[in-house]
Automatic annotation (TrEMBL):
Keywords: GTPase activation. Residues 166-190 are annotated as: Disordered. GO terms for molecular function: GTPase activator activity. InterPro entries: PH_domain, Rho-GAP, RhoGAP_dom. One of its GO terms (cellular component) is cytoplasm. Residues 166-177 have a biased composition (Basic and acidic residues). Residues 224-413 form the Rho-GAP domain. PROSITE patterns: PH_DOMAIN, RHOGAP. The keyword Acetylation does not apply. This is Rho GTPase-activating protein 9 isoform X2. SMART domains: PH, RhoGAP. GO terms for biological process: signal transduction. Residues 29-141 form the PH domain.
Amino acid sequence: MDYSCNVTNIIVEPPSPESSPDSDGCTPELEKAGLLNKTKIAEGGRKLRKSWSPSWVVLVGNSLVFFKDPKSQTPSSWKPGNSRPESSVDLRGAQLQWTNDLSSKKNVFKLRTVTGNEFLLQSETDSLIKEWFNTIQNVIVRLDRENPLDNVLLYSLRRAGSVEMLEHSGDEEDRRTSLPRSSSNLENTERKRVKTRLKKLIMRRPPLQALQEKGLIKDQVFGCCLEMLCNREKSTVPRFVRLCTEAVESRGLETDGIYRVSGNLAVIQKLRYLVNHEEKLNLGDGEWEDIHVITGALKLFFRELPEPLVPYGFFTDIVETAKMSDYMDKVDRLKCLVLNMPPPNHDTLLFMCRHLKRVLEHSDSNRMTTQNIGIVFGPTLMRPERDNGNMAVNMVYQNQAVELILSEFDHIFGTRGPS
């Protein structure tokens, strides 16, 4: 259902005069309102973990305002007073661009503000999201024409609490005099100089993402969001996962209890540190001779993902699927669930399961059966978002789900995935 609307006769309460650099106290008109999917991906240049949710989006004046999804209302009955806004975005100086590499969803565009906040907005309806993009872009162009950059920066600094520095950046000796500030040419000159330098600094400051891409700031590998890590590495399977499995397949497939036996925790933590802080890593070095250290680090990598390899939203369905009595129905449903996972999750799960199948081919030597691998990787690859008291019961079905994926690997991964 299309919940978007274009109206010119609905008004919302304007911000207070102090909240806008050139507010004249008049009531802005609502230009567009509708239901979109929204997530915030950066705040002040710092990346945030994506968390998509439906939001009632209102474009009014120079602002984009987000309200909680009014499930029981329609555009004709919705009024701003019925709910409080979750957040708002000032569009002065903002940038808008289509993106297909920041999300697996289709029809996504990114909105970046002058303060470094970034949002993704999305709709399944092509025409609807294009209409939103064009409308917001037109507002940004109009605001850029009506409001000089000086006003935008000063407004951003005021909201950040930095305007005081600009207003008190004159000469100390002059400030100790009783002359009004406006009467001191020296002070005015100094203020302008500081403001000019500060504005140039702000405009030259590269975003955090650019620094990361140049290698000046290195993101962590352990504890990093899987999608963010894969985007950074321009792959759908993390490099560290590939390195570990290559090491195991080159010298560990015959090792008794591979993946079940624990490695030295101190050495695992040392490897974890090096992975997070060094570009080059050679797991063939004698320092990593114990293959159980490598397998322990790989399991730790998966356990430290902010969201497990099997996303939280799939956990309950997979557990319920494992409980089904009809075997083929169970396999088909599990195949459907796996195919609908985001590309990094799907491809990394495929990669790991293909590797574990190779481990199983040497079960006579390593004594790792399908059941043993299920016990090890059930809780490693998936977990519930919240413990509802059924942890022990869920664990059984988590293990069975991994066993089923390995047993029916060719059928479940038959239509998609990297080699």
